[in-house]
Amino acid sequence: IAKLFDVGIPAINKHLKNIFESGELQEGSVISKMEITATDGKNYNTNFYNLDAIISVGYRVNSATATRFRIWATERLKEYIIKGFTMDDERLKTPNYSFGQDYFEEQLARIADIRSSERRFYQKITDIYAQCSVDYDKNSVEAQHFFATVQNKLHFAISGYTAAEIISSRVDNAKPNIGLTSWKNSPQGAIRKTDVIVAKNYLDKEELWGLNNIVEQYLIFAESQAKRKKAMFMSDWDKKLSEFLKLNDRDILKDMGKVSHAVAEALALEEYEKYRIGQDKNYISDFDEEVKKIKTNVKI
Question: Which InterPro entries match (predicted)?
């Protein structure tokens, strides 16, 4: 550490002592003792400090090298606070840069969590995009476009309609369950407003299978890339989604569809208000069932 910041060993010891005494770092969590053979041929226990300790010392020690470190580190911290991310641009631009083993192990853990989660199909795709892109920037035009189109891409691929078109063409207060195939409290619970504006709730079994199949392929591919230590960028994930759809002989969405989200939602809510009247009249809650049982028992 003394060599790194171009100062004497006593200065480093002084700063480490102050760091531990102030509670900034816990001594036991940043030190690893290792046996080193000295020039006299004897073995001595030597303290090795982790990156946390090195950074803390760098913000305290007085030298030209330490000053340059603080300028660099503060710029990274400032970038993170303002933008919500920071990147080593030069490292990412280097095609042959080798990401560390820890990076890909973390990616595999993230992918496993995403696969086992209860998130909706298209949300798993966006989770992979956000958590496994080395250049991810949620505020970038590229990311905003991906998030805005991924749901429609998937729905169009398996049904030929965008999310808004699915809702507007299938919602009907005269149909059983207003046209829904599933909803939050299905199959016996009441249908709510929030159920009728979700396109996935109108998909049939074949369409749901197709949707799940595509997403599963995407997740398996993500896992394979991490195991092979292949770094992926935002543009790669976007491109691969389209390639998976083509590979499965699915139609590729080329526009935003013929029905807007606002129009579809308004139509669905209008149909729901008509449907709700009959639902409220015929709906039997758990409480109603219990009251009915009590009345029956009393008569007996």
Answer: Virulence_RhuM-like (IPR011204)
